[in-house]
Amino acid sequence: MSYVHKGEGFTRDSRYLTTRITADGRDGFPVEAGRYRLVVSRACPWASRTVTVRRLLGLERALPMAIAGPVHDERSWTFDLDPGGRDPVLGIERLQEAYLARDPGYDRGITVPAVVDTTTGEVVTNDFAQLTIDLSLEWAAHHRPGAPALYPPALRSEIDAVNAVVYEDVNNGVYRAGFAGSQSAYTEAYAALFARLHRLSDRLAGSRYLVGDTITEADVRLFMTLVRFDAVYHGHFKCNARKLSEMPVLWAYARDLFQTPGFGDTVDFDHIKRHYYVVHSDINPTGIVPAGPDLSDWLVPHGRDALGGRPFGDGCPPGPVAPGEAVPAAHTPWGARPVGGPGTGADRVPAAVTGPPARR
After folding, report:
1. Which of 36, 151, 175, 209 is flagged as catalytic?
2. Is the dihedral of CA 298, 274, 50, 265 positive or negative?
3. For residue 345, what pLDDT is reported?
4. Which residues contact 303 (CB under 8 A, 6 or more apart)?
5. Among 44, 99, 190, 239, the one annotated catalytic
6. What's the confidence (pLDDT) of residue 171?
7. Which of 2, 9, 12 is CA-nearest to residue 180?
8. Is 186 a residue of the active site?
9. Residue 1, pLDDT score
10. Confidence of residue 340 (pLDDT cuts 50, 70, 90)
11. 12 falls in which pLDDT band (50, 70, 90)?
């Protein structure tokens, strides 16, 4: 599978299925609890947005979730984490089957997140940018009591503006650097990435969150890149001006979110590393998955409380992770074995991290 094309810059294929699931069903797909299945991979930053937003809003029962394995081939993401290698609800081995059920001639990306209509087995949408907004707005009747307002009306224009530049330079910018096929394309993406991170650091130096004094959609989107930065993007994608852990403001901001219910408890570092280092064989032909970094550093106190802010606004944190959806303990810093008294992360050793799987 080739991700880099010599002499060319990286351009993301954005031909998504833009059908929407709405409260009024105007596209033919009304919001209906239990009807749809959200298919994700914890490795994928775009899919991980939906996992966090779904948890923050309390949509676990209304929108059940299927988790694909972290490694895929040219054909599709697979359900190799499930017994028998099939999703227990959809009954399929590969997400590709749900795309082809909608369109037998489908020739675009088999991407996650994808929402599948369980009544037909067909993908409804894989439009990741719109999907999380719709979870906030169209699925409001199914939100938990105390769910935060992630896309409040008064802040939407500012959130949209922040999201646009973060997508261009950061979320997609790391891919533009990592999948660059020429020195000039890489240099341009690299420069834009670190210039934007510098501006974001300045913005967050005096504000706990990106927009307003509560967590919003903008924080969710930036977090998904930051949480992967040192584990993947710094080395694998050559985004190596400095590590996240060497950018004090952004590192503290990322730890603040990581330690907030709904963020870090959805992150699977093992899946993240296995996906990038195994699937991108043209960048990492050996398939060797790095043993580091030390995950316990994510639990070091962040000190961002001093900036004020109300993480959930007038709401409250989500409850415990839903049964069957917990990240394996060894794949998170909370799975690290304490070796001293409570405190700052220095009292912990890294969680065990598995090596690369056999190629599928």
Report:
1. 175
2. negative
3. 37
4. 252
5. 44
6. 98
7. 9
8. no
9. 65
10. very low
11. confident
- For the question of residue 44 being annotated catalytic, the response is yes
The per-residue pLDDT for range 86-95, each reduced to its tens digit, is 999 999 999 9
- 349: pLDDT strictly greater than 70: no
Is 32 exposed, middle or buried (CB count within 10 Å of its CB: 0-12, 13-18, 19+)? middle
